[in-house]
Amino acid sequence: MADGPAVVTQTIVDPQAQERTLTARAPAWTEYLRSGDGLVPCSSGSSECLVLSINGNNKGEKTANNLLLDPARKVPTLNFLGFSNSSASNFTDVELTIDVPSGFDATALVLPKATSTLPGLTQYRYSITLLDGTTMTGVAKPGDTITQTKDSPMRTVKLYPNMLASGAYTDRAESCTTLVSDNADCAGKSKMYLQGSLAAKYDDGTPVKGGDMIKTLFTITIPSVRMKDPQPGELVTFTQTVSNTQQVVLEEQLVAAAGTWGQQGSDKQPALKNAGLLSTMVSVGGNPTTPYIYEPIFYYVLPCGTVYNNDPLTWPNSHGGVTGDLEVTTFQADDGRQVVKIDYTGTGYKYYTQTGATNAVYLNNEPDAISGTYPWQIYMVRPTTKIDTKADPTTPPADTTYVQGADKDVYLVGQGTWTINAAKETRTTELSQGNAADMFESHTTSNDLSAMNSLDAYNDDPTLMRFAVSVSNNESQPLQHIREFVAIPKSTGDSTFALNLTGPVTFDNLNGSGTSLPSYTVRYSTQPVAFTTALGSEPSTDGYVEAADVKEWSAIQSLVIEMDTLPATTVMGRFILNCSDETLYQDAQKSVALETGLYAQKTDGSAMQPLVITKSDKGVATISVTGQSTVIARLHWQVDGVDHYAALDDLTHSYANNLDEFPALGLDYPTHTSGMSSADKALIPEGYVMKDKEPTIIGDASAIYPGKGWTTGVAVPGTMTRYNYNGNVVQYELVPKAVLQRARAYNGTLADRFGGGIPADAADEQRNPQELADAAYMRALSVDGGGAMARLSIPKISVNIAVYHTTLDDVLSEGVGHIYGTALPVGDPHTYTVLAAHSGGVQGMLFTRLSEMRQGDVFYLDVLGGEQGYRITDVRTITPERMERTLQQIRDAHQSGDATVTMVTCMPIGVNTDRLLVTGVRAPVPQSIPAASTQRDGTLIAVGVGVAVFALALAAAIVVRRRAKRRHGTRTR
């Protein structure tokens, strides 16, 4: 094709010997050229001038052309394909064929994009045969995606481009990544993508297995031209086939790579907070075939003189919006360095490596850090995913305590250095180490119940608390006559506690620094030290003795560290005070601070300004005690005398000791099944229901607490949480449903027993209440062994009280009584129950406010954990002599309907001449009646009851002129 209009210029000499210029113009034109013979496009007669290319789903150097067998993961591109024409001919009858192998679930083909490298190619006709025999035909444009029309994989793909011009070519057919498990299209590249996934089975139904080899064929055919057959040398139809064989690999065969990144600010002083960070990141080397590492464990080995700041990880690793539920812990290696462990074990998380800095930990420079440059490392342990260590083939660490003893599948992810530059000054520094701290830091904590760090000394004795004092002379001249006084922390009020020395001061020379450190002496006193900041003065050392002369370490109140000289640019290592808190178990929310004073002379004999650190100063070291008590909940039942339990995990709560109130039952711990979650209710075994009583709190009688003078205990609702609440159990008792079945059986005998009467006041010949002699009645619906059968709740008038068998005096002094001769309150249709209680008596409110109830109001009965709701349909007042007849009439009126309950009490209060009857009919909860937990007393009033008002037993008033002594009886519990 010409670039533009053709112009021809010619100069001639005419017969008169004159030169003349002739110019001719013509429009642009197109002419397709063929080779000389019109049959063989490639000069050698071979197929080398028309080239096909095909590659697998990744370009890994070590494991190129691998396919991951993972049904849960789709591999977007199975094969990359391309073609080119370097002949002098243009072709319009090209046929491209892809033979898709069994084992590929090929779902789509992406065509090369329209580019200047494919001139004249404007469309592809296609014919695609699916596994089920279906043929797809059509026309597609460059860049289109041809997708299967049925849920059957592609098996043969034929493409007919309208033009394959001379010099045309696609981009090279290869993946843009080494990754097997996260293959993606190459954005902007013009090539073919065979897309889909690796199938679980071959077409014949046999499973695809790791190690299988799967081959894809790619063929070009041009019917109009010829090529020499390599064997006989004869001309045949032009055709060329290339193939790609890929191996099926399992996820554990994949290789990942990761790198590290450390950053430190320009300020490298000791005591600097957030001085820099260490993190992992994408590897700049290596040859990974997967971007994922399954459940790795990282060990960040921090440089000397630094500690983790304990903030949450910065830039936590995530991919696709998912962040692993990792665990971050710390421990101290044998060489004294702190290690931050980032552990994904058991989370199912696949750590994503193709990212920038991630899982960064910020470091604090320790106050007594020594000037120098210190190495750091990040190791990883992962037995499932292999790691490419090509960039740094380092063996596992010589100090295996860096990785908690792991001796295989350990990889050095990366390493670097950290610099400390101390100011040229004299310093005294303090550090602390409570039982929750792995390292010495300025402010640490101790747990009141057990050691929380990884150090054996603390696990052996959780009361151990340590302070460290260090003296640094970073100036150019030595110091003389050095005296470092230390006050042993003692309690000064309710917010502090006392520490006792457990032995002599020990010394740590800070990782071998200063091999020729000066000698020192430590002496002790049973008297407190009086610090002074006056220039030229210092506390007296009278009465201070050496360790050999100390009679009782707990009596020591101060000590002094003495040195004759401290050379210039020398850091005297840590002097460590080993202390004990003998009342640790009760010291939550308390703290102690270390007070010190450094006194010295300069080279010329003049006094150095004293460096005194008091408990209010910025540089003071402290230990704070924290702790919490965890109270669990469980169900308890018996089968043939054997105890069984089920944990109620969602009812396990923790409370800060000496800070949080252990709540009243009914708040964190429901008192009825109506307040429990559906998951908790589902744990109640078939055939059992919960007793109608508050749960029991069981203390941990086997507990042992750190310190002296502790006692075990039982949590008391409504009190401040104490150390011995930890491990307590809130236990819910279950009883067999047979109790309910016995109650129903008893209700079925009422008509035969009482002939339609309600003999609540029946007595035998000795005038003893008849119900006490009725063993069947007393056993039926006895849910707690004490006569309780249910719990009555009337939210409107703030009633929530147990219902007991009988209406004897001792019953009505405690709660609501069940009137003998009426149905036990199981809530079944056609049953009628009568309940009675005092009003206006010394027993409490009981039914005192029953007169406030109106038709439409609701009340509830909880029987063996089942909530029954009742809506009031009848409120009436009668005289005592009409009682029994009226109750029978109400029963008869409702005997064909739902369960009915009548509540009875005397009125007016203090006069008791009448009887108030409030009747309700059962309705479903919550469809017709809201759950009891949603109801409140909106008109709570105080009812003053004079102590002169005597309680009248309702049962004594059921029948006129019945003598009280007939109802005197005692339940057997």
Automatic annotation (TrEMBL):
Annotated Gene3D superfamilies: Sortase (2.40.260.10)
One Pfam family per UniProt: Sortase
Residues the record marks as active site: H838 (proton donor/acceptor), C906 (acyl-thioester intermediate)
This protein's UniProt keywords: Hydrolase, Membrane, Transmembrane, Transmembrane helix
CDD domains linked to this entry: Sortase_C (cd05827)
Taxonomic superkingdom: Bacteria
Transmembrane spans: 940-960
Single annotated GO MF: hydrolase activity
Name of the protein in question: Sortase
